[in-house]
Every structure is written in C-alpha cells, then in structure tokens.
C-alpha cells in the first residue's frame, strides 16, 4: 500500500536552518546537511529545503548546499526559493534534487510551471502556495506571496486547479494562518484542494503533535504532510509521528 | 567502472551519488562502444517513453542496450529505464520499446482515491498468491505507467487496484520500477546486492 509521507521542512537562511513563527522571528537550528542526514536516518520519507532569503536578496539558490545534501542523503528532496528561470531549475536538478518548488514565481509567471513540467517532467515541479483566510475569494482562501505579506486576489482552490492543469506534479498547501502556531494543520483548505486536484497534496503549517498528522491524513485527504518546528526542537521525532499514524491505521513506511 | 547511460531522459546525479556512497565509480556515456565494453551498465530515466525511445534511436543506442541487457552482463534498469525494456507502452499514444521482456506497460486506471502518478513509498512482495509479503520493504516510486507481470517478475507492487512488476530479473539483468537511488537504506542494500550479482 502506498504510504502517507512525513516530510521535514528545513528553512535555510544564510546556510543555516532556521525556524520562525508566521515567517518572522527566526532562530538558528543547525546545519542543513547534518539535519538532513539525521532526518533521513530517523525515517523521513522525503525532505524539503527552502532557501528563504534567496528571493528577497535577489540571488540564486545555494547550489553548493543542494549538492552536499544530495551526496549525503539518498531519499527524495525538494528545493525552493531563489528559482527564477528554467536555467535555475536545471541547476537544482543537476545538483541532485528530485523536485523544484515554485511559489511566488508561479504566481508572477504561471507559464514557468508548464515549461518546467515539459522539460523535467511533472513529477519534478511542485507548486507551493501560501493561502490565507480571506473574504474576497469564493473558497475563502486567498493566495499570498512574499511570506504572506502580499495578497494576490487569486482563489486558492482555483489556483491549485490551474497549476495542476499547467503540469504541477504536486501541490504544497502551506497555511499562513496555521504556520508556526503548532495548533494543527488547516484542514479545511487542504481538503478542498485535495478534493479538487488529481495530483498529490502536501499539507504544511501548524503541526505541533503527532496526532495532527493523523488528523490531516484522515480528515483532509492529504497525501503527505510537513513537520518543522516540532521535530527541529527535539520535542518529537519522526518515529513518534509514524507510531501515532500506525496506531491510527494510517499507512506509513516502517523499517527504515 | 559502471556505465550510466545518458540518453537525455533525466538526472543521473542521484544514481551517481548512491553508487559513490557504496564506493563505486561511475561514468556517464552515450557511446554504444562504451556500453558494450563496460563491466556494468545502469539505464535510468524519468520522463516520457516516446521521446526517450526517439533519443535512443537517434543516438544509435537501442541495439547496444538490447545487447547489454542479454542477462550475461550486470545491467540495471531503473523506472523508465525498466519500462523501456518491455515490448510496448501505452505512453505517448502507444510506443514500441526494446522488447527485452514480453509484457506491456499501461497507464494506471482512474480509480477514486488514487492519484496518478503514484508518488511515494510502497511495499513490494514476491509474485503469486503464495508470495510472502515483505511488509518492511519499502521503496520510492514515481510513475503513471506500470509494467504487466511477466514470468521474469521478481517482485510485485500494488496501486490503484493494479498489481504490477516492481522488479524483473533475467540472469544478471535486473530492472526496477522503483528508484533504489532514492529509497534510503533499502535502496542502497538493493544496489549492493546488484553489485554482487
């Protein structure tokens, strides 16, 4: 049986993994490569890295880090941040990443999703989105960019459908409202999107305890979910999350 | 040294890295001669079957691969590199492939609750009703098309109600639908076994 994936997310700022609340107040957590190895050995099904300062600083993603991670871990990983062209995507893929995550770039230039999928295959192109509750769009969730600071007028469900039609192979729904709160994933928007698109959906933002994963897989129909702060601080391990999933009858990879 | 066949179908960095981790050197080639003389050949790939076959034919590699995949020389096909060893695939409106194995490759059916492509970790088991489930053996899969079960099928996997070939073997020719290079420790152990075959 295909298992539900648990994916640690590492926000990288100036070569270090950091974690903030609602994209602010970042604290240092460690070295990305060391943390990647630790999570891979600890049962992570996949990893995702966001070079969170690359876009703001208008510089390309740190390819040296991508290469070092690819040499150190042998599970899939996605990379986002600081990608502005097909050439950037190619550099990341050739450095050994499995997937490229595009977010603000896709909002500004949706064609890049189709171009990336045509060149590298849909499975390589992940659409990241940062929805926020909003009364201005039909689904009640509006897409933001720049870490939740700028509203785009795009309806989150419509945008997800469009991105999947363009060729995104996977959609990461990162709730800005839930991010860093540790109160649990935003079930409502995750489920709406999981039901609206034919590609896998990854829930992101808000996980605080292992039961939050059980809830998002059960209630929101997510195919994968992201863990960040709760595992970075050492309060919980991937194994704790997977034990809770197994106990609840949710298929999860064991025996790593 | 292990020859990694480069036919413009994706990224070989992960395969290189996995073999490097096992202390094995690899080199990338698109020369029929080098494929013929290499002691081991890896044929990996993602992407679409139609363009992959067109690239292989244009590069004059189709015959060299069939030759290398006779089962005498250690040969490893991965993902699209495995599917192309079958006779035909439904992909790209129907594409004739190398025909080393007799079966067909078909798209996963539309079934409620199953997204296509299958992306993620799935478990494998020996074929046949009496096959013992290897519950603890998970590999990473990314694919929309799946190969039929053939007499040479060594491991099967199930998705969207379809049981399909996860690993096919003939002599020292092994070919997996899953990505051993992305399958963590289980994947490295699989590659190590192949290195010993």
Intertermini distance of chain B: 15 Å
Decide which structural class fits the backbone of chain A.
Answer: alpha/beta
What's the CATH C level of chain B?
Alpha Beta
Strand content of chain A: 25-35%
Question: Quick one: CATH superfamily of chain A?
Answer: Aldolase class I
Mean pLDDT of chain B: 93
The CATH topology assignment of chain A is: TIM Barrel
Question: Tell me about the biggest sheet of chain A?
Answer: 8 strands, parallel, barrel
Largest interface: A-B, 33 and 38 residues
How would you name the oligomeric state of the polypeptide chains in this document?
A: heterodimer
Distance between the termini of chain A: 16 Å
Instruction: Spell the H/E element sequence of chain A.
Output: EEEHEHEHEHHEEEHEHEHEHH
Number of helices of chain B: 6
Order of helices and strands of chain B: EHEHEHHEHEEEEEEEEEH
How confident is the prediction overall: mean pLDDT of chain A?
93
Please explain how this structure is put together.
The complex is a heterodimer of chains A (256) and B (197). With 256 residues, chain A is of the alpha/beta class. Chain A has one domain: Aldolase class I (TIM Barrel), CATH 3.20.20. Chain A contains 10 helices and 12 strands. Chain A has an 8-stranded parallel beta barrel, surrounded by 7 helices. In chain A, helix 1 runs parallel beside helix 2, helix 6 runs parallel beside helix 7 and helix 8 crosses helix 10. The radius of gyration of chain A is 17 Å and the shape is globular. The model of chain A has no long low-confidence stretch (mean pLDDT 93). The longest helix of chain B is centred in the C-terminal third of the chain and has 12 residues. Chain B is α/β, with parallel strands linked by helices. Helices cover 24% and strands 35% of the residues of chain B. Chain B has a single domain, classed as Class I glutamine amidotransferase (GATase) domain (Rossmann fold), CATH 3.40.50.880. A 7-stranded mixed sheet of chain B has the order 2-1-3-4-13-12-11. In chain B, strands 6-5-7-10 form a 4-stranded mixed sheet, with helices on one face. Chains A and B meet through loops of A and helix 1, strand 8, strand 9 and helix 6 of B.
């Amino acid at each position: 049986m295909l298992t539900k994936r648990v994916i640690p997310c590492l926000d990288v700022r100036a070569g270090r993994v950091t974690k903030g609340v609602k994209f602010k107040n970042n604290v240092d957590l460690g070295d990305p490569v060391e943390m990647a190895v630790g999570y891979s050995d600890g049962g992570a099904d996949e990893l995702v890295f966001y070079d969170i300062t690359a876009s703001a600083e208008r510089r390309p993603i740190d390819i040296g880090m991508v290469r070092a991670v690819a040499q150190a871990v042998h599970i899939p990983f996605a990379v986002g941040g600081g990608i502005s062209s097909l050439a950037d995507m190619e550099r990341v893929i050739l450095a050994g990443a499995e997937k490229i995550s595009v977010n603000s770039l896709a909002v500004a230039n949706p064609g890049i999703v189709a171009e990336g999928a045509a060149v590298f295959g849909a499975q390589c192109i992940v659409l990241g989105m940062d929805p926020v509750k909003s009364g201005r769009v039909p689904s009640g969730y509006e897409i933001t960019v720049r870490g939740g600071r700028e509203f785009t007028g795009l309806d989150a469900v419509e945008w997800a459908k469009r991105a999947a039609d363009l060729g995104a192979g996977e959609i990461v729904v990162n709730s800005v409202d839930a991010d860093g709160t540790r109160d649990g994933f935003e079930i409502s928007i995750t489920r709406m999107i999981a039901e609206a698109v034919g590609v896998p959906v990854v829930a992101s933002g808000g996980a605080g305890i292992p039961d939050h994963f059980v809830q998002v897989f059960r209630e929101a129909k997510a195919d994968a979910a992201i863990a960040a702060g709760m595992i970075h601080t050492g309060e919980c391990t991937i194994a704790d999350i997977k034990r809770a999933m197994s106990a609840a009858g949710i298929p999860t990879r064991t025996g790593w | 040294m292990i020859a990694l066949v480069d036919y413009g179908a994706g990224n070989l960095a992960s395969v290189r890295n996995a073999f490097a981790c096992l202390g094995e050197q690899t080199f990338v080639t698109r020369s029929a001669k080098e494929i013929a003389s290499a002691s081991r050949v890896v044929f990996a790939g993602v992407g679409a079957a139609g363009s992959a076959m067109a690239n292989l034919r244009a590069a004059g590699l189709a015959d060299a691969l069939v030759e290398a995949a006779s089962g005498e020389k250690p040969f490893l096909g991965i993902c699209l590199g495995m599917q192309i060893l079958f006779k035909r695939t439904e992909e790209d409106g129907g594409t004739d492939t190398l025909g080393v194995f007799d079966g067909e490759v078909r798209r996963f059916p539309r079934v409620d609750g199953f997204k296509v492509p299958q992306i993620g970790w799935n478990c494998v088991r020996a074929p046949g009703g009496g096959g013992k489930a290897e519950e603890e053996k998970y590999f990473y899969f990314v694919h929309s098309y799946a190969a039929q079960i053939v007499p040479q099928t060594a491991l099967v996997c199930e998705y969207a109600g379809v049981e399909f070939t996860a690993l096919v073997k003939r002599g020292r020719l092994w070919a997996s639908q899953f990505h051993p290079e992305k399958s963590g420790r289980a994947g490295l152990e699989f590659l190590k076994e192949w290195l010993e075959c």
